Each structure stands twice: as C-alpha cells, then as structure tokens.
Amino acid sequence: xxxxxxxxxxxxxxxxxxxxxxxxxxxxxxxxxxxxxxxxxxxxxxxxxxxxxxxxxxxxxxxxxxxxxxxxxxxxxxxxxxxxxxxxxxxxxxxxxxxxxxxxxxxxxxxxxxxxxxxxxxxxxxxxxxxxxxxxxxxxxxxxxxxxxxxxxxxxxxxxxxxxxxxxxxxxxxxxxx
Length: 178
Description:
The protein is built from five helices and four strands; from the N terminus they run H-H-H-H-H-E-E-E-E. It is α+β, with helices and mostly antiparallel strands. The chain has one domain (51-178): Nuclear Transport Factor 2, Chain: A (Roll), CATH 3.10.450.100. It has a four-stranded antiparallel β-sheet, covered by helices on one side.
C-alpha cells in the first residue's frame, strides 16, 4: 500500500513538472513585436564603430525584408508604421511583421537585396545612407516613372539610421512604387 502511495506521488510530481515546463517553454508562435539582442554600444553617434554598426543594421534590415524574415526586419525598424496600417487596416496595428510583409508582398514596396550601401552623411543623431538594390539577375534595380509622370529614373535611395536604446535602428521603409 505504501509503495502505491509513493508511486502515485512520484507520478503526480512528474506530471506537475511537465506541466510547469510546458507553461514556461517558449511558444512556437512568432511575437508581434520581437526584440533582438542589442548591438554593443560604442562611443556616440558619428564614431566609426557606430557608423559601421548603423550600416550593418541597415543591411540586415533590407536583407531580412528581401528574404521574407519580417520578424527580424520589424526588430530593426523604428520608423512609422501608420502609412502601412492605413494601407492594410485588417492587420492589427501592433503586428509589425505582418505590416512589413504586406508592404513587401501586396503594397508595392521594393523589398530586394541591397547592392551597395554607402554612408553619405553623419548628423548629430543619425546617419544617412544611399542604397542601390539588386534585381534577381544581379543587375541594379532602376525605378522608371510611368510614361508622362514627373520624375527621373532612380537607382539610389536614401535611408536614415538612428542610434536607438538597443543599438542602431532604421527609420525609413524601402521605396514605394505604386
């Protein structure tokens, strides 16, 4: 009888342990607003290590969008989502990865791999980069306005990067082509 009670206690303890582990284990579902490991802080905006970190962040952001890794892209983007929400009102306002996915797959944003990423200006609170994008064949993407529309062909696009609380963050979305 005593062996039976001990066996039941062991089984109950094991089940309780499994239940607790299941409750605290990471969920397989993707969070709406992910965080990433902060980049190491260096000595202030404008320093060479900061500019490199800013460029790497921009390249990671654009590559993540091109590869469909919208969770990573959302973690690296600190710009405004309001325009994306206005274009996609059925997506929850806080579901940043889904808004970025819609931008790239439905709304006409150029989510291609970056070709060149060049630092063109350093400001007190940000860096300005010029970026070219690659077509799938490796050639440089060129935006051509529709016939009769104002504007010239464009192959380089500007992006701002700021030093956020968790390292550099991108402020601008890829170019929009209606």
